[in-house]
Amino acid sequence: MARTSDKLHPDAALNDKTIVLVGIMGVGKTTVGRRLASLLKMPFFDADAEIELAAGMPVAEFFERYGEKEFRKGERRVMSRLLDQAPHVLATGGGAFADEMIRSLIQKKAISVWLQADLKVLIERTSRRDTRPLLKDKNPAEVLTRLLEERTPFYEQADIHIACKEGPHMRTAEKILQSLNNFVH
Ligand code: S3P
């Protein structure tokens, strides 16, 4: 029997542009991005992982040593480089699309997809790892609520909005693929 993903043939037009996943931390950009890349048979990149490679240290250590402002500068450099590469699926850090320069580059060169989830899901997911500098020694519900408030007006500017329900990430990837197919037609 054909699986849902077999029925969702990606349109060739989709492979022409990088697909950028944006949204708050914990929403699943990296995991969903990997699944989406495999459905689209495109390479996958994770901006935070690329920043870590370039900096030679984990994001948390970078924040501790140099602070958020320097991190944002590095994030801009890495995002500009990635957006000049051949089309791929790109998971961004939660703050990237709130940065004016990064957002306008994405809007010019890529298709943006905003992943949304309920606060409860975000809190549960972010509590699994303690690697996120913005949540370190803080009340995650408070920080996530504030960041969502600040960033939603930016996230809303993404081309496609996807509500992530609890359940397999592959389901979300398939939902994105369907919306992408509609978007390019
Ligand atoms: C950040 C989110 C993180 C990472 C950094 C800053 C943010 O990425 O880029 O800690 O400003 O929301 P994830 O969204 O992948 O956790």
Note the main attributes of this structure:
Rossmann fold, binds shikimate-3-phosphate, globular, 185 residues, alpha/beta, 12% strand
Description:
There is one protein chain. With 185 residues, this protein is α/β, with parallel strands linked by helices. The protein has one domain: 3-Layer(aba) Sandwich (Rossmann fold). Helices cover 54% and strands 12% of the residues. It has 8 helices and 5 strands; from the N terminus they run αβαβααβαβααβα. The protein has helices at residues 4-7, 29-40, 47-55, 59-83, 100-109, 119-126, 140-155, 169-183; strands at residues 18-22, 44-46, 89-91, 110-116, 160-163. It has a 5-stranded parallel sheet, with helices on both faces. The two termini are 28 Å apart.
Measured on Cα atoms, how large is the radius of gyration?
Answer: 16 Å
Give the overall pLDDT as a whole number: 93
Given helix and strand content, the structural type is: alpha/beta
* Terminus-to-terminus distance: 28 Å
Name the CATH homologous superfamily: P-loop containing nucleotide triphosphate hydrolases
Poorly predicted tracts of residues: none
User: Which CATH architecture would you pick?
Assistant: 3-Layer(aba) Sandwich
Largest sheet: 5 strands, parallel
CATH topology: Rossmann fold
How much of the residues is beta strand, in percent? 5-15%
Number of strands: 5
Helix content: 40-55%
Order of helices and strands: HEHEHHEHEHHEH
Number of helices: 8
> How many distinct domains?
1
Instruction: Give the strand line-up of the largest sheet.
Output: 2-3-1-4-5
